[in-house]
TrEMBL record:
Assembly description: Homodimer.
The protein, known as: Aminotransferase
Annotated GO MF terms: pyridoxal phosphate binding; transaminase activity
SUPFAM superfamilies: PLP-dependent transferases
Annotated transmembrane regions: none
One Pfam family, short name: Aminotran_1_2
Lineage: Bacteria, Bacillati, Bacillota, Bacilli, Lactobacillales
Listed GO biological process terms: alpha-amino acid metabolic process
Entry keywords, A to Z: Aminotransferase, Pyridoxal phosphate, Transferase
Transferase as UniProt keyword: yes
Family: Belongs to the class-I pyridoxal-phosphate-dependent aminotransferase family.
Keyword Transferase set for record: yes
InterPro entries (alphabetical): Aminotransferase_I/II_large, Class-I_PLP-dep_aminotransf, PyrdxlP-dep_Trfase, PyrdxlP-dep_Trfase_major, PyrdxlP-dep_Trfase_small
Organism of derivation: Lacticaseibacillus brantae DSM 23927
Length: 400
């Protein structure tokens, strides 16, 4: 069959392998799933029921491409309160999760071969979305306080780029947060070098310690930041509901692209989520999530401290779903997972290689702590620790 060139890279993104690595007898630190036991199932069911009860004949009808206005108003009010923005519903487009925001932004900006800066490592689904537009990637390392701006400047002096993709809050996969200073400096660079910043923030509301800091969007002086949010991690991923904030001119073009892609996000879901937000406190639900996830995160950090060999390094993130493990240079975490960790120790994680556009870093791994019980975290990390100690005792060339 004669498939389009855009499928060539997308089909090797590694997304399938990531989800295949899970079966019932495996303790999986691989997924990026929220804890299903914490879904607000009853309240969401009540919201759907109430939406049907109140229906005047429009609930099952087409809505609009921009999306249900009362919900967009609530999202704007929430972002104004928490992020210090001054938005109205007109600044917001409802999307099918943040994922669609990634696709639509790439569709808006990229011609084949155009430059895109991505973080190294980054969200694998971001690469999967962008790959379809056949960009040229420039990879900039992520440090403990976010993007390495010195490396970024070197790229910008040499290459023209259309947009920079960043996950500044509890970065997927490293769990790091970009400092306020870097957020400000990044906007200045975008102004100076004329590019768009794609700020992807699905974990932003899941902070377990430390102070909330403003989004990159709060420092946007020239309308260059496209800011994505999502209900996936804070309510439920199956809603497939997120939002995109952009200036009116960009939003108009993006909305036209969305109309061509899927006409609109589900009106039924938007009405029900709006009802949920009217009758429930999202902040109270977030407190429940944060309390539970903080316990799990602490359990993982404690288990890693106890069981990891000295040569392994890990961080202690202040929020989100993930922490990042670094093994000695040359150690191949993908080979280790497929040949030893998964078949023998029955534990999985996400190896670093496919999380880098360059595929150049093989000695890292992403560990998820939200969708695993505290007990499994302890058992799984203990098993990971002994498998790693064994593997590291052998010459590294066995794994390189
Ligand atoms: C950084 C990041 N962006 C976007 C997404 C996609 O989320 P959604 O379910 O909102 O489409 C995810 C999901 O894991 C993510 O981690």
């Amino acid at each position: 069959m004669k498939l389009a060139n855009r499928t060539i890279k997308t089909s090797e993104s590694g997304l399938d392998a990531l989800f295949a690595a899970t079966s019932a007898d495996v303790i999986s630190f691989a997924g990026g799933y929220p804890d299903g036991q914490l879904f607000p199932t009853k309240a969401m069911q009540a919201a759907f029921n109430a939406s049907f009860a109140a229906d005047q004949g429009t609930l099952l009808q087409y809505g609009t491409t921009t999306g249900y206005t009362p919900l967009r108003q609530k999202i704007a009010a929430r972002l104004n309160r928490l992020d210090g923005l001054s938005l109205t519903a007109d600044d917001i487009l409802l999307t099918q999760g943040a994922q669609q925001g990634l696709d639509l932004t790439a569709r808006l900006l990229l011609n084949k071969g155009d430059g895109v800066v991505v973080e190294g490592p980054t969200y694998i689904g971001g690469l999967a979305a962008f790959d379809a537009y056949e960009p040229t990637y420039y990879e900039v390392p992520v440090q403990s306080d976010g993007l390495d701006l010195t490396s970024l400047k070197k790229v910008l002096l040499k290459h023209e780029i259309k947009f920079l993709y960043t996950i500044p809050d509890f970065h997927n996969p490293t769990g790091t947060v970009m400092s306020v200073e870097k957020r400000q400096a990044l906007v200045q660079l975008a102004n100076q070098f004329d590019f768009i910043i794609l700020e992807d923030a699905p974990y932003r509301d899941l902070r377990y310690s430390g102070e909330r800091i403003p989004p990159v969007k709060a420092f946007d002086t020239e309308g260059r930041v496209i800011y994505l949010g999502s209900f996936s991690k804070i309510l439920a991923p199956s809603l497939r509901l997120g939002w995109l904030v952009a200036t009116p001119a960009l939003l108009k073009a993006i909305t036209a692209l969305k109309a061509g892609a899927d006409v609109e996000s589900s009106h039924l879901v938007a009405v029900a989520v709006d009802d949920y937000l009217t009758h429930n406190s999202l902040d109270a639900h977030l407190d429940t999530l944060k309390t539970s996830y903080a316990v799990k995160k602490d359990a993982m950090v404690q288990a890693l401290t106890q069981y990891m060999p000295k040569a392994a390094h890990f961080n202690n993130p202040e929020g989100g779903f993930f922490l990042w493990l670094t093994l000695p240079e040359g150690f191949d975490t993908e080979k280790f997972m497929l040949e030893s960790l998964l078949p023998e120790a029955k534990v999985s994680f996400v190896p670093s290689k496919n999380l880098f556009a360059s595929k150049s870093v093989i000695n890292g791994a992403r560990l998820n702590f939200t969708n695993v019980s505290v007990e499994d975290i302890e058992h799984g990390v203990a098993a990971l620790g002994s498998a790693l100690s064994q593997a590291l005792a052998q010459p590294i060339s066995h794994h390189g």
